[in-house]
Design a protein that fits this description.
By secondary structure, this protein is mainly beta. It is built from nine helices and 37 strands.
């Protein structure tokens, strides 16, 4: 029996096995260890420091492993309310010749500078509303509540690249260009300067030729729209001086509800299509507009409507045409997609999804700092996330039969049934065995992106969630739904990033990089390196500072960029 750091037994398979929603609970787990130090403020480490190597770091790994996430949760006497609100802290693990150095810097965003200058929270975030300036008189403070809320530039979600430049991003209209060597903030970039959108996701997709696609909302008198954005590659725009110059909106999709668009964190992409998933996580725009007046944050405007279906929209990347056929599924939520490709007249899409969409509002900092039964209650009321596959038939026309399964792939149990002229209802197949329930499902999925994105693939990697954050690393083999697991009680690994070896001949030739947090042991965070094929630990680089649990990262090296280009 596995024990947690308090010598309590870890959840059993039966406790974690997916169950129906009974009395507000999805699981019946007890004795979760407290992880409050995962969301504690830390100081930056702007100068590179050495790490202590345990085991062996393969000498062929040469490059920067970059990570992003919140690192400051209080400003003066003010405290942020939500995990997503913390000030962005950028991390760099520089790997060369079997050695690793570490450095970190807070993003020099306008909101970070303003907050520090005033020693209080002056810019509202996802779950925190900035209060009026106490130095103003009563009348001025009253009038300030009627001002339209501005967008934060606290880009604490991910590192992204456009035309070879590095940016940090969140889901507003602002990004920041950063130097991947020094982590210094170089430039603030506003999407609105280039195209008419009110924000963009932190998860763009890139084609082998360097063309990058993203999505962002726009709000007009006609209602909310979801926009597909295309940013040309460096080769296609050599005469354009600014990174986002040449960006265009290739397709705009009207929201089903004009004033309550769906929230989305990412989207799927195959060789020829963008797949936008309009899910029942809704955003009440009126509540956002009146947020200052009511004292409510964006978080309070986001809600789950289980009465709605999920809709898959297909957009042709080359023509920008929206497919007239809509693919429907039962209510579900998804934050991250795994992969998508076209084969034999179908678009196959693998995603991580749950049957409930309330989890986003559960990640209050006060929840993550709870202990005992109060912590168990937070976890048990959250629906688990599992990998699923949908198969969408691409050739639906007037001759396509109704009320029969259009999915003719012999190795697939997913269904796609035409129920109206332009409506196909889909059910998924599971990409896992019952064993995954033991590990609390899977999130933060990653693949060998350079070689297998938009193509058939075999392996993906992710975090198991027996806690509010990842507590295991998992390798999934789609041939037989076999699993390999790395786990150690009391250790909390972050998103696994796959790095292919220079001489790779097979899909899983390479390593997995993950930053492992140790909330119950001071200054013992480490960079973990696993053999991606065997999932055995090769080595770790121990960092003599504390690091909070972050969100997303990327690895860059010249040979990896060459591999991606050659995969075209």
């Amino acid at each position: 029996m596995l024990l947690n750091t308090d010598n309590m037994p870890l959840p059993s398979t039966s406790e974690l096995k997916k169950s129906r929603y009974i009395k507000g609970h999805y699981t019946d787990v007890h004795g979760l260890p407290c992880i409050e130090r995962i969301v504690c403020s830390v100081d930056e480490t702007p100068e590179a420091i050495p790490t202590t190597i345990r085991g062996t770091i393969p000498e062929w790994i040469t490059g920067n492993f970059l990570r992003n996430g919140p690192g400051k949760f209080e400003i003066g006497n003010n405290k942020f309310n939500h995990w997503f609100d913390g000030m962005a802290l950028l991390h760099q693990f520089k790997i060369a010749a079997g050695q690793v150095t570490y450095k970190s810097r807070f993003l020099g965003s306008d909101c970070y500078m303003a907050n520090n200058e005033h020693r209080r929270i002056v810019v509202s975030e996802f779950g925190t509303v900035a209060m009026p300036d106490p130095c103003k008189n009563f009348f001025q403070r009253f009038l300030s509540r009627f001002e339209m809320p501005g967008s934060s530039d606290n880009d604490n979600v991910s590192f992204v690249t456009y035309k070879g430049d590095y940016y940090v991003s969140t889901e507003t209209n602002f990004m920041h260009k950063v130097d991947p060597e020094t982590l210094e903030t170089k430039e603030k970039v506003n999407w609105r300067k280039f195209i008419a959108v009110n924000g963009a996701t932190a998860h763009p997709h890139t084609d082998p030729d360097g063309t990058t696609y993203n999505m962002g909302n726009s709000y007009t008198a006609k209602g909310a729209f979801y926009n597909i954005i295309r940013v040309p590659s460096t080769k296609m725009s050599e005469n354009l001086k600014e990174t986002l110059e040449g960006a265009t909106v290739v397709c705009s999709i009207p929201s089903l509800d004009k004033t309550r668009p769906s929230y989305y964190h990412s989207f799927a992409m195959s060789k020829n299509y963008i797949v936008f998933i309009e899910q029942p996580i809704k955003i009440d725009l009126l509540k956002i507009v009146t947020g200052k007046l009511t004292g409510k944050g964006i978080k309070d405007a986001v809600y789950w409507n289980p009465e709605l279906e999920t809709i898959f929209h297909l957009i042709n990347k080359q023509t920008g045409m929206l497919n007239s056929v809509k693919y429907y599924a039962k209510a579900m939520s998804t934050f991250h997609q795994i992969n998508a490709w076209e084969e034999d007249g179908f678009l196959v899409m693998d995603i991580c999804a749950a049957d409930d969409g309330k989890a986003i509002n559960n990640y209050l900092i006060q929840n993550m700092r709870k202990s005992g039964e109060a912590l168990d209650e937070v976890y048990n009321t959250m629906c688990r996330v599992f990998p699923r596959r949908f198969v969408l038939p691409l050739s639906v026309n007037s001759k396509t039969p109704y009320k029969q399964n259009l999915n003719t792939r012999h190795d697939s149990s997913a269904t796609a049934i035409r129920i109206a002229m332009d409506k196909v209802f889909c059910t998924h197949e599971n990409l896992h065995s019952e064993e995954l329930h033991k590990y609390g499902g899977l999130e933060f999925p990653q693949i060998n992106y350079a070689k297998y994105n938009t193509k058939p693939y075999r392996y993906f990697y992710g975090c198991g969630f027996r806690h509010l954050v990842g507590d295991t690393l998992i390798k999934m083999d789609l041939e037989g739904h076999k699993m390999k697991v790395w786990e150690h009680p009391g250790l909390y690994p972050s998103e696994p990033v796959f790095v292919p070896s220079p001489d790779a001949t097979e899909e899983d030739d390479g390593v997995i990089l993950s930053v492992v947090i140790t909330p119950n042991k001071d200054k013992s965070t480490f960079l973990l390196i696993l053999d991606a094929k065997t999932f055995d630990e090769l080595g770790r680089a121990e960092v003599p500072v504390n690091i909070p649990y972050g969100f997303h990262g990327t690895f860059y090296s010249s040979y990896l960029q060459k591999t991606f280009t050659e995969s075209k």
